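Input record (one chain):
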Amino acid sequence: MAIVRKTLAELRASPPRFSPEERARLLALTDEEIERVAASDPDNPIRTREEIARMVSATRVRRARERSGLSQDAFARQFRLDPARLAEIEAGRLLPDETFLAYLTVIEKEPEVVRRALARDAG
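The corresponding structure, as predicted from the sequence alone:
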């Protein structure tokens, strides 16, 4: 089977459709068969819980930073984060601890409060 690459916009405009036969075959698969087929696919390795947690955290951190309109370096400087650690988290190579995630929640909900508190602390 040939690999066809499409952009997200193309997929949204024209989502893939299954024939009735394909749909029936897929719906007939047991959980064990699905796991066996998934495990045998070298292009789609099964992720560990930690890998999934890192990916979810990476997405959350990157989205929070992007909503701020800041680059990684500027976000790290403004909120006094280690730039290398931020980059590792956003790349999904490092799982942030609970303290980091709690601080991120405060930044997401009240960025101006954090900025004012840090400005007072610096002065």
